[in-house]
Design goal:
globular, 2 domains, alpha/beta, binds 5'-O-[hydroxy(phenylacetyl)phosphoryl]adenosine, nine-stranded mixed beta sheet, GMP Synthetase, Chain A, domain 3, four-stranded antiparallel beta sheet
């Protein structure tokens, strides 16, 4: 454990600390950020009305559009001369969101990433290969400063030039790989193409995140790279990676509760849901300086538990994120997350772990097509084998998710590979 004093803090102490920090944050945003001042007044709340953590739900939510409406610096609580770094999340549409860090925010971020990496086995002996993108994306630099804080030897390679990445990992004796799970798969393929085997590398662990990935995907990555794979979660608006991370128990991701307060809400009604119920994660930051966030709606779907973990950490654990409420596809009325399709495909184990969902509307009917890659051998096999497999996958998806999909097996390496976040869904419906 990187920082047992906080990571294993008794719950009553932790909650006292949370409340103290929450009060300070609320006073600050109320005074300094007109957006919050107005939003609180609109619901008739002042910071003084928040008398316990249970009162948190009296506060209004903050959403991504609020960041966009106040673009670029409108929600900052400090002057720009105190801001020492900017990051931005690209978003797929419209105005990007800009986030800022004071020097103390950067120190906090490095601390949280040190916890994350230490939980994934990093020590000062590790050689950490960071293939998350560097730049405005928080992945590269976020992991970077955490790895340096741990004292590891950092290789800041960023994404791209995958053959060179593999060569460097081999030559430098990399022990820990940090990248998106989809890029890890691309690296696996490249290792094979280069005629190498994972045993020729020194890799022991990987910390993967920035996109949803199923338990079955974890299995594939662990088997193929012969490593232990850990899930790490975060979002730019809150801090970047470093919000929550898996420990060796792999029983959920510990959310750094001494700095963030999580809630789970019903994404439709906005009501707070009881512990253990699946819903949308909402996070309040309680120690960030430049850009505090009050009840920020992440859109990520998960579950929370506050039971103590076997690893000794006391912080709440969130389940692996199954998807985003705004990525959830509604196909003929049925809710489908791409990760559910991924789970089914990988569970069957007869195809490659590369797939894409194409959604279209013919007349008034939604059509789902699932493109799945198969191995060279199977593809060159006679057509009947392929048809049989397509039928099997179709049945499995129908039985498990209750939707009929058209399955198309495609040749190896025809689905685009990703160096960052994979594009799993192409929605042509213009909804
Ligand atoms: O993706 C931060 C990050 C970088 C996390 C590197 C982990 C590793 P954004 O670009 O702002 O920040 O995207 C945040 O990505 O709301 C989730 O929908 C998704 N996401 C991040 N981590 C996970 C994960 C970074 N482990 C958005 N599992 C979040 C599932 C994830 N989804």
């Amino acid at each position: 454990m990187w920082n047992p004093k906080y990571e294993a803090m008794e719950r009553d102490k932790l909650e006292k600390l949370q409340f103290l920090r929450l009060k300070q944050t609320l006073e600050k945003v109320y005074q300094l950020v007109p957006f919050y001042g107005e939003a609180f007044k609109k619901v008739g709340i002042e910071p003084g009305d928040i008398r316990s953590l249970d009162d948190l739900n009296k506060l209004p939510f903050t959403i991504k559009d609020d960041l966009r409406d106040n673009y670029p610096y409108g929600l900052f609580t400090v002057d720009l001369n105190e801001v020492v770094r900017i990051h931005s999340s690209s978003g797929t549409t419209g105005i990007p969101t800009v986030v800022g860090y004071t020097r103390s925010d950067l120190e906090l971020w490095a601390e949280l990433m040190a916890r994350t990496l230490a939980a994934g086995g990093a020590t000062s002996d590790s050689v950490v290969h960071i293939a998350y993108g560097y730049g405005l994306f928080t992945g590269g630099l976020g992991v970077h400063y955490g790895a340096e804080k741990v004292g590891a030897t950092v290789v800041p390679i960023s994404g791209g030039q995958t053959r060179r990445q593999v060569k460097m990992m081999k030559d430098l004796g990399t022990t820990l790989l940090a990248c998106t799970p989809s890029y890890a798969l691309f690296i696996v393929e490249t290792i094979e193409e280069m005629g190498l085997s994972p045993e020729e590398l020194q890799l022991k662990t990987g910390v993967f995140g920035a996109e949803p990935w199923s338990e079955n995907m974890r299995q594939v990555i662990e088997d193929k790279l012969k490593i232990k794979a850990f899930d790490i979660y975060g979002l730019s608006e809150i801090i970047g990676p470093g919000v929550s991370y898996e420990c060796p128990a792999k029983a959920g991701l510990h959310l750094n509760e001494d700095h963030f307060i999580p809630e789970i809400i019903d994404p439709v009604s906005g009501r707070v849901l009881p512990e253990g119920t699946t819903g949308e994660l909402v996070i309040t930051t309680i120690s960030k300086e430049a850009l505090p966030m009050i009840r920020y709606r992440t859109r990520d779907i998960t579950t929370l538990t506050r039971n103590k973990c076997s690893c000794g950490r006391t912080h709440a654990r969130m389940a692996k994120v199954s998807g985003r409420s705004d990525d959830m596809l509604i196909i003929r009325g049925v809710n489908v997350f791409p990760s559910q399709v991924e789970s089914i495909l990988l569970e069957m184990g007869e195809t490659a772990p590369h797939y894409q969902l194409i959604v279209d509307r013919v007349g008034s009917l939604d059509m789902l097509q699932v493109l799945v890659e198969v191995s060279d051998e199977l593809f060159s096999d006679h057509v009947r084998g392929l048809e049989k497999l397509e039928k099997k996958i179709r049945l499995e998806i129908d039985n498990t998710l209750g939707i009929s999909a058209d399955i198309k097996l495609v040749e190896p390496k025809t689905i685009p590979r990703s160096e960052g976040k994979a594009q799993r869904v192409i929605d042509r419906r213009n909804l």
